[in-house]
Amino acid sequence: MEIKKHQKILVTGATGYLGNCISNGLERLGLNITRGSRKYIQTDSFNSKNWIQTNWQDSSLRFLDDFDYIIHAAGPSAIFCSGNIDLAKFFYEDINTHLINKLAKKKNKGLILLSTVQIYSSPLSGIITESHPLTNRHPYVFFRRRSEKLFLNFIESGKISGCILRLGNCFGLIGSPSGDFYKLYINQICNDIIRNNQIIIKSNPMIKRDFFPVGNLQDAIEIVLGGSSKDPVYNLISGKSKTLLEVAKNIAFEYQL
Fold it and tell me: Model's pTM, two decimal places?
């Protein structure tokens, strides 16, 4: 199915890495995209003129009313959540729950809720299914559980359409860098080698991670918006974990070529 280009889509967290990439990609498809941010945005400093301030303190969440579909990418990083448990709860439990309840009361509203595969456990290993217990207690993932369960119940009952996209470690770029772009491992080391002809691995080089291109996330969102997705949860990963050292060596080799 093709995406309905007349539908109005709000991307929250649009000043962050994922929200910015998603907005850029969907705008290139000619879709009616509005970027949402808690901050006041001077639109003349951005390519896109469609911005709205997302006031999560507003109990009515009136800024959602004009949109057919919400792509919810707002929220602090895992590192920030480690030292800010109250803020992690506010964003990933309180706001998410309020957002989902609000949309469920409206007709013909859709939601793509971005989450993380780390919600299952950390580190991830073996075969993971939806019957796998959610054991990770890191604030970045722990407070997502209640809102995700609520969303899945509403999808099952037909009160809302959409799905949860649980992501691996995204990397890459659509458009211009924004948010935590240069703090993400692959983006950071690519920047290092281009600018300084060297790579600095700031974590344990033997840590294994699953890296997922942000362009593939864009493809998945297009499928959901086009109505072709059938399941309530999708885990977006490459399926091939590599150590940080292996990734650095691969990038250094490609750079030398």
Answer: 0.92
